[in-house]
Design a protein that fits this description.
This protein has 18 helices and 13 strands. By secondary structure, the protein is an alpha+beta fold.
């Protein structure tokens, strides 16, 4: 489930004295770039990347090239900035600052231990067991709009799609789907630029969710079932098990990592296909292309466009000194359209028949020790949903104004994506 690399892979052994990154003459990335549409922001990054692998951003440095993004994400001295989000948002509440780190933010031995204990529960095999249910969910959603030939992909399909699957994974009953949907939406506000103003809503949702999960854990200890919570309770490695607090944290990580990402990535995917009707038709005719289509969609238009890291110590990379505490923001979107990520050197061209280039996999799931734990589940969800949508929504076309989430939102995707298609 994880990539690994030694620290030495990211160190330049140049004989000259390293120069502090703060002393470099670098171009400044416009802070308003997130407010631009995808094509405009992509072009800005590509123009900068022609001459620079690193540029200044608002609170640190953005990394633009594929090899540099990969090297930094695989260097364990660069710690995940998720742990710093509350502080960066201006939140001082000790309920957020003093909590034990979840697997999303843990580092070192703690992260290794947590990942070792839970990795089997997130295997491709376990994700595959949910595929029939995924097809059932997406078909049920399409049933609601198929006869009309009109839909808002974002609200009718994408928003409701992942919650039933997460609930099925956890073993939560159907009558609680709506509860989980509300909790997921409110808990995920912590990643928005407006988190400090919505702290009460976030805390209440977190409290309710934690109480629900603690109750589920207690029930599964007495009545084990074939679900994720039971598997996590049973997970053991050399006599080590997850505590109740760690189990609650893990379920929270599943909801945080598996809800907004999936719904937004599916929305980005359909929005991209709407721009390429030939590819939509091809997917409908050849559903076996779904695995390649998902990788190509995530490369060209990933919902997670970047990630953050901070230097846990002084780090020298490319003979540049990054002092401890320095923030860098590897641009996954920029890396994905690096000129040599595809064999034809036309990375902006969308083609679901592409064969992956060895050593140049799409970066939207990240890399290194924090490579997306739920990648197998996310791939399965997208691989099942997209061919069904292509087959049941032929001649898809945008019908009206597409509105996208605001630039303060951590995970990008459509708020509204109205479409027409030939009704069935």
């Amino acid at each position: 489930m994880t990539d690994s690399a030694t620290d030495e892979t990211s160190i330049d052994d140049s004989a000259s004295e390293p120069v502090s990154v703060h002393d470099l003459d670098l171009p400044q990335l416009d802070p308003e770039i997130r407010a631009l549409d995808r094509s405009e922001s992509t072009q800005i990054y590509r123009d900068l990347a022609k001459d620079h692998w690193i540029v200044r951003s608002v609170i640190g440095y953005s990394i633009l090239h594929y090899d540099d993004v990969t090297a930094i994400l695989r260097d364990k001295r660069w710690h995940n900035a998720v742990a710093k989000i509350p502080e960066m948002m201006g939140i001082t509440d000790p309920d957020f600052l003093d909590r034990p780190p979840s697997i999303l933010a843990a580092e070192g031995d703690l992260h290794t231990r947590l990942r070792r204990l839970v990795a089997k529960s997130f295997s491709p095999r376990n994700a595959d067991q949910l595929r029939p249910f995924m097809r059932e969910v997406v078909n049920e959603l399409v049933d609601n709009v198929a006869a009309s030939g009109h839909a808002d992909i974002a609200t009718d399909i994408c928003d409701p799609y992942p919650i039933p699957i997460i609930c099925e994974l956890l073993g939560a009953p159907r009558e609680d789907w709506e509860l989980f949907s509300r909790w997921a939406e409110d808990v995920l506000r912590i990643f928005n630029g407006t988190a400090a103003d919505e702290l009460d809503v976030i805390k209440q949702a977190q409290l309710e969710l934690n109480e629900y999960v603690v109750d589920m854990i207690a029930k599964r200890r007495d009545d084990p079932r074939d679900d994720l919570i039971t598997h996590l309770i049973a997970a053991e490695e050399e006599g080590d098990r997850l505590s109740t607090e760690e189990l609650v944290s893990m379920v929270n990580a599943v909801i945080v990592g598996g809800t907004d990402t999936t719904r937004n990535q599916l929305g980005c995917a359909v929005g991209l296909f709407a721009e390429h009707p030939d590819q939509w038709k091809l997917l409908a005719e050849q559903p076996d292309l779904a695995p390649r289509a998902v990788e190509e969609v995530m490369r060209v238009f990933g919902a997670v466009r970047g990630t953050g890291r901070f230097a846990s110590e002084d780090i020298v990379y490319r003979n540049i000194l990054f002092p401890a505490g320095t923030f860098v923001f590897p641009s996954l979107a920029s890396a994905n359209v690096d000129v040599d990520v595809v064999e034809d050197h036309e990375p902006l061209r969308f083609d679901i028949t592409r064969e992956p280039v060895k050593g140049r996999v799409q970066m939207t799931f990240g890399s290194g020790i924090h490579y997306c734990l739920g990648a197998s589940l996310a791939r399965a969800e997208l691989q099942e949903a997209l061919p069904i949508l292509a087959q049941r929504m032929p001649d898809l076309a945008v019908d009206g104004v597409v509105t996208w989430k605001p630039p303060t939102t951590a995970i990008f995707g459509p708020d509204s994506l109205p479409v027409t298609f030939t009704p069935q």
